[in-house]
Amino acid sequence: MAPINGTRPHRQPADEYYRASLDKSLPRPRPPVVHKTTVLVGPRQVRFTVNRKLLSAVSSFFRERLQDASQSKPICLWLPGESSTMFALFVEWVHSPSSFRRFLDHAVQSAHETSHRASEDVHWAIVRLHLFASDLDLCKLQDLAMDALQDLYLEYDWDVPPSLIAYLYKQCEALTSVRIRRWVVAMAAFSLTVGPSQSPKVQPQDSATSESARLRALFESLPEFAADYIMHVRNMKAAGLDVRFKNPQLRISANKLRNDQRMFGFRECSFHSHRATVGEGPCPHATTD
């Protein structure tokens, strides 16, 4: 018996023709459908197009407004009281959360190289992003924005402007702004004891009069700010810390600090949403990234 030839026969030209014809006759698989949602932001209704599934996943605020909608029906939401500059950052985070901090750092640097006005715009966008995330209970995003704000002030040696303090204490809910209020109080205490920075201010109108005089004037017009300031100074003294040296811009990448570190900077999670529960353990965001 002749041995069986283990090699496959060469495909004939006719086979190739029929195979190509068959392939053409079969329907091509459809690309996955990505449903979008339109969000209008601010009084001018600036339009944003957002992935509906991702938007629903990040917050119950959006999920409750989108869940009853038919998949084929276009949905449009309007956020009249929000900033379009802030929401542009939020959309970037929704679509690309893992690379968002790098994106934010690049936006800050690009704005700084463009103009002082651009730096102001991105500064206020980050402030409002923190507040928006806090209002929606998006802990990781609000903490990320808080870190970015600290780093921005440290990088450019900014003093906290009185306009920011007034905004937080006059126009923002106490619960929503509790962490950023705590930070601006610490910044005000640091500025009043060491003197104002020589760097350009975040808001040009804030340099029209003495920075320290304007900060002190806020104690009379904003009783909550004055009470928070007094409590902060008392807490620093009780802990044996000197507000002249403890810089709120300086975030040390640890929660268990040596005595010399405690004197000059704040621990990693001092202004985070999990500050009360993390103790001296590692930052939850650092372990999950």
TrEMBL record:
The record's Gene3D superfamilies line, in alphabetical order, gives: Potassium Channel Kv1.1, Chain A (3.30.710.10)
Q: What is this protein called?
A: BTB domain-containing protein
State the superkingdom.
Eukaryota
